[in-house]
Design goal:
By secondary structure, the protein is mainly α.
């Protein structure tokens, strides 16, 4: 190893911030500025992974405990690229990882629901938006269109209609009218003048 070269991952960690007295409510952070990972439970307390590769099984166990790919890779001692390569190349690993991700997501949803019911208005709003988007989603409506834009759209629509057979032209005119006005009107009330039929 060359002189002055880092000798371990710990040497690559960012420099520590100036010393500040720790807050009793703040978790202790590791060298990367993250809370330390929980210790993996004993192997016999985890579900058995059917994967024969010990590194992949260790990574899956770490993912189950940590809940994120970054933390799982760090705990298992692998690079994130390795995780994604395994996902792409190994169907059994991919299936197990996706099952663990789904279980983790359900656990997060349960916790979010619990917190929303016990005082978090923000979580409550997000849950309602995700579960009933037709009622609670944010809506953006633009009610004003410049006369120049309207004129150009009408000209383009008219040019399209003029080259269409009459039965298609009538349908296009009706559809354009629905789009522009927001509500269908009868065929006699077209916004666009239809070409004369012969």
């Amino acid at each position: 190893m060359a002189a002055g070269a880092p000798s371990s991952r710990a040497d690559l960690a960012p420099p520590a911030p100036p010393h500040v007295a720790p807050d009793a409510n703040e978790p202790e952070l590791n060298a990367y500025g993250r809370p330390p990972l929980p210790q993996l439970p004993e192997k016999n307390t985890l579900p058995e992974f059917t994967h024969s590769d010990a590194d992949k099984a260790r990574a899956l166990r770490a993912f189950m405990v940590a809940g994120t790919i970054t933390a799982a890779c760090e705990a298992a001692g692998i690079a994130r690229a390795t995780w994604y390569n395994w996902l792409e190349a190994d169907e059994a690993f991919r299936n197990q990882a996706m099952a663990l991700k789904e279980a983790s997501t359900e656990e997060l949803e349960e916790e979010a629901i619990r917190r929303a019911k016990h005082g978090s208005d923000t979580l409550l709003i997000f849950l309602l938006k995700s579960r009933r988007p037709g009622i609670y989603r944010d809506r953006l409506t633009i009610d004003v269109v410049s006369p120049e834009v309207t004129s150009r759209l009408e000209q383009q629509a008219q040019a399209i209609i003029e080259v269409c057979p009459p039965e298609i032209a009538a349908k296009l005119a009706a559809r354009f009218r629905e789009i522009w006005t927001g509500a269908p009107k009868g065929p006699a009330a077209t916004v666009i003048a239809l070409p004369a039929t012969t």
